[in-house]
Amino acid sequence: MIQFLLNRELRTEHALDPNVTVLNYLREHVGKSGTKEGCASGDCGACTVVVGELDGERVRYRTLNSCLTFVSSLHGKQLITVEDLKHQGQLHSVQQAMVDCHGSQCGFCTPGFVMSLFALQKNSSGFDKADTMEALAGNLCRCTGYRPIIDAAEQACCRKQPDQFDAAEAQTVAQLKAIAPQDTAELNSGDKRCLLPLTVADLADIYAANPEARLLAGGTDLALEVTQFHRELPVMIYVGHIEAMKRVEVTAESIEIGAATALSDCYAALAQDYPDFGELLHRFASLQIRNQGTLGGNIGNASPIGDAPPLLIALGAQVVLRKGNTSRSLPIEDYFLDYKVTARQEAEFIEKIIVPRHQASQAFRAYKVSKRLDDDISAVCAAFNLVVEDGVVQSARIAFGGMAAIPKRAAACEAALQGSAWYPGVIERACAALAEDFTPLSDFRASKEYRLLTAQNLLRKFFLELQAPEVETRVTAYV
Predict the structure, then answer these.
(1) CA quadruple 271, 277, 278, 279: dihedral positive or negative?
(2) Whole-prediction pTM
């Protein structure tokens, strides 16, 4: 069974279908219809809810897309919906701000905006325009033009007052401690089940016994099989309770990131060493997705347009794979074999990712080109990691996403640069070499000609930035 709090109400589920999303659970099983389905793919934000988790003696609130969240992942947590905000007949301050600032017109998107504003208010000490834009980037509205919603965010954050959640925090902490997972749980509807281990060793044993199972971390990709393709997932293993796989450990040599670490929790360590990695994470889908999606999942789904793999390849990162009691390390560039085909063996899983620390001699840049600035998938993603000393390229690691069936190093381009003087003529030779490295496809995101020219222009951009770093625009390039 699983247990969680629906606001302050304890919910216990024994035989629920593990394929049920939080969105459908709220609407069809609980009768809470305030949370809306707009896209069922995590793009529109109409289904946004807030999940509370223990953070010491406090509750940490984060937004999630309920359309991409399976109910099993709520085990041991608190779920808050738009219906829970009104208290003793009074609108919550974020709801009142939306009313006062005329932030709602047709109203369909409003519950999602309200929940994003609620989490923003909880996690801020005042109004900040950049934080507001980040918090709302995953919520779409076709009516208001957003200005009144931003005004509502400013009012809600500037006039922040203690609410019923603050008053009940101690009791909520006690409730969450009482239902904290103590051993492997299972949600079983008879023909479908989801297992929830607490340790890496338990995960290895369970996966070995159920090699056909699908691993569930954030679920932002896996859930699409249910919501978009209407498939059933007979067996899942949820890894979100394995603390050892949710850690970020920084040593003198490396940054070790557990495969189940949410992208939001990877940000600080990666941005400290590699600011461009941090900037790219800001453009990785939406805050709701980053709160839920994991770095291990972004690698494991083997998408040729995943944002993180090209950067990790350029940085020489490794994945640690585990099967049973055996672990092995693999350069991440060797993990990807073909479209959606990886080096992972049956019942083997990604345990952690190891990223080398930044060295003073490195010049690292990353660029994401997409049709929208926020919440969009790359047409081309490029990462450059060079060491240039005394005007000569001592080493070069260059990787691209969106240019092949897998995220891939540009071997010919690297060879054209390696050992050469760092000047425009060499850059042009390296740009020509990119045509040897890649034969990109045309699709609805970009034509093959556009992709190749863009990749070449990003190399030229990288060269210019290193010549004049004060005019860098880096990862903000978009079309």
Answers:
(1) positive
(2) 0.94
